Amino acid sequence: MTTLAKADIEISAQAARAFVQLYYPAYDSAGRDEDVPKFYRSYSSILWNGNPVTGADALKDFLKGIPTTAHEVLTYDCHPIPNTKGPSLMISVSGTVRHGPDTGPLYVTGPNGKEKPKSKTVDGQPRVFSQTFVLVPDPDAPAVEPGKLGKYVVSADSFRFVG
């Protein structure tokens, strides 16, 4: 079994941070059906809350059919996968997501100066999620020097509401 070098772990942490910082704003953007599929390839395996979606084109259609979102990432962790070149990464993310047209602030200031919940409806209320990605080095990207951060794409993605 191959052990991971310190450089592999550092690159993995950089790649995970960069991915999370790019992915969720793209997912929450008005152009998500064009932006998010760029993270995937035709062979990408996606499981969204028990519903399989295969490949970037199917993901584009899927994204058009769900309400707007606002994600708040609470934590993420990255595990480099031994015996893979690049190395490949498993990223676990947890946080909250709000769906629907009202994904603005959850609280408003009342006339008395105190904050109160903005809405009592399900739309716009946060739901806890867990999402796990397997990222692999992009085979179409130019080769990078050992110890340098390369471009990654999503090979597998599993999203699940926790509560």
UniProtKB/TrEMBL annotation:
Residues 15-161 form the NTF2 domain. It comes from the Eukaryota. One of its GO terms (biological process) is nucleocytoplasmic transport. SUPFAM superfamilies: NTF2-like (SSF54427). This is NTF2-like protein. It comes from Sistotremastrum niveocremeum HHB9708.
